[in-house]
Amino acid sequence: MSDRRWRPGETVLERFHRPDGSIGQVHPLRVLEDDGRVLRGWLPAGTAIVGSRLADGRLMREAPLEQRFRVPRVAVADSWHGASTLRRIAEDEWSSVWWFFDLEGRFKNWYVNLEIPLGRSPGAVDRIDGVLDVVVERDGSWRWDDEDEAEAAIEVGRLTLEQFDRLRVEGERIGALADRGAYPFDGTDTDFRPGPGWPAPELPAGLLSPRSGEGPAPARR
């Protein structure tokens, strides 16, 4: 458990590091609660984030699979849209669980972002995106997501086989919880509503240089 923790209402950044140590996407979260191990935060649709795209201007999914982890990426000004997310990020787990809510506030499903935890730093929780993910539907059924991208990431050294194996184990653990209808897939927080008048979390000024962004691009689901 970390000595660093945040109070409800504060903004904390979820920072996704690349294996070379550089930082890719940055998502600001409004803290709901934090005990030093598990952080729960809120990212509403429309919130400004630091996104990323390929250096040649394409979005990652616009590039053929074999290019997605070979072409360098750059940070861009972006916004989180399409759905709001409630996130549970545990320091000792290789995943974070995202509750997705549509623009009317209705719960859609869970998206489990498989991740490599890197601990906490001032104002941020630090992770490496594991590429492979798990989608859990409202009825508890689940499936792997982005398996093809994970294989491509291994081919170019973006993930090691050891990391991939650990991420698969974490995904199987998540799937077993979903099969049993166990927390966090037991309906907890599916009726979540943000407090009235809550302001959206904000990025600190100066995270992006004026020339680093070329306008908003679709955020990754």
From TrEMBL:
It holds the Pfam family DUF402. Residues 180-221 are annotated as: Disordered. It comes from the Bacteria. Residues 57-180 form the DUF402 domain. One of its GO terms (molecular function) is hydrolase activity. Keywords: Hydrolase. InterPro entries: DUF402 (IPR007295), FomD-like_sf (IPR035930), Ntdp-like (IPR050212). This is DUF402 domain-containing protein. It comes from Amycolatopsis iheyensis.
